[in-house]
Records
---
Amino acid sequence: MPDRSRNGLISGQELYAALLPDFGDRVFSALPPSLLRQIEPNLIDDPGLRQHSTNVGVLSSFLGHCAGTQDSGWLDRLAEAAILHDIGKTRLDPIVLRKGRDVTRADMDHIRSHGILGAELLETYGGDLYALAATVAGHHHEAHDGSGYPQGLIGEAIPEEARIVALCDVYDALRSPRTYKPAFGHDHAMRIILNGDTRTRPQQFDPYLLGLFKRHSDDIGALYRAE
Ligand SMILES: [Fe+2]
Ligand SMILES: [Fe+2]
């Protein structure tokens, strides 16, 4: 990673050059072997999950950097924790995950459990990184206005790292194809994040982070990588 304390705010392109092209591969291959064994088949079966995870890791570290931290160790841990935010999806029923628009209420509850399942898995590994990763996994679907899950936490009761990941998670999901929608371009995704649509409302995001996201929109768009 570049020396941010000396150079001040680096650009998204500089961060990209420092982290990529093999950032995701490096993080995944450095995981404890027992964890890698559990998740690798799903990551191979679902390259979209692998790319989504990597993008959210890169974008989250960049947004954390934009928020003004000088602690490059924290930014590196945030990137690695963010990359694991959806790890609980590897424990879900793949048939339910592929249903798209036809999901039932019970299916939704099952899908929504991925945060807690991921946190439980990551907590077993101990250490600062996995404690942070468990926090992020468990809270990345909380919303600033309390409309999120699993706990319906409000505002700063949601850990900062999870607030950062939540915003980057939604951006990447908008840019990527899903069973229920096509991939949107950067401008379209930014319009939805800033103005809302039927699924997304700006009130669900930390307003300070949302302002940074808007201010650094060009870099955010440059950091995104399609599958
Ligand atoms: Fe998620
Ligand atoms: Fe996600």
Note: The CA atoms of residues 152 and 160 lie 15 Å apart.
---
Amino acid sequence: MSKTLICTTCGTQYPPDQQVPELCTICNDDRQYIGDNGQKWTSMAVLKNNYSTRISKLNDQISALKMQPDFALANRALLVQSPEGNILWDCMPLPDQQTVDYINSIGGLKAIAFSHPHYYSTMNEWATLFNCPIYIHELDGEWIMYPTPSVKLWSGDSLPLWNGIKIVHTGGHFPGSCMLWMPSLTGEGTLLCGDSVYLSRSKRHLSVMYSYPNQILLPRRDFTAFDHKTSALKFDTLYGAFDNQDLEGNAMDVFNTSMQRYRDSYEL
Ligand SMILES: [Zn+2]
Ligand SMILES: [Zn+2]
């Protein structure tokens, strides 16, 4: 996989020995953007020489993996430890040796699962290193730039994994947007939300948008579908895709208040 190019704005890796598009397909979509200096590409070798990965524990079961310094979208991938197999929720571009060794020391990965296409990044590198499948909702199949046999498309409202953990389809930001639900260490449940909802700086509001960087609202019908899909979720803790998007204990209250704001705004 060494002859592959990686978009510097979103971190998406394109297939080896193949012409990359003039503009990255993920970035050229209305939900993303081309960098100010135009389309730029890099490689895994350059990333390995210039970046490292920070591993930080969020609680006994979840660790955040994030590139240092920031690269591309600067999101974190969340590593979930569970007795029947560990899960990587979303990816970030650099599986450096320290990170690979750490994950192997706690039992490797049984699956990689995704919230949506903005974090597919170098998913095939991760899947090859850990010899595990990649679960993506079929409604986002068209956004897979580098399809391989590791990618398993799934359909429907939810995909049960193990130890009570399940991937829940929500739609909204992307047609196939998902969250990972897991039994909580403390009570109702923990939600890893990716960009399916986005925790504000105040930690008192969760937004759901067509585009976060371009601030494009969801059409009313898409919000209604999202609202319906998420109405049965029960959780008390939520972790988003970025540093500090940790909401422990009162996440359900914040979610309910936020969704009511949307219903009022859309006059639903
Ligand atoms: Zn891109
Ligand atoms: Zn996104």
Note: The mean pLDDT is 96.
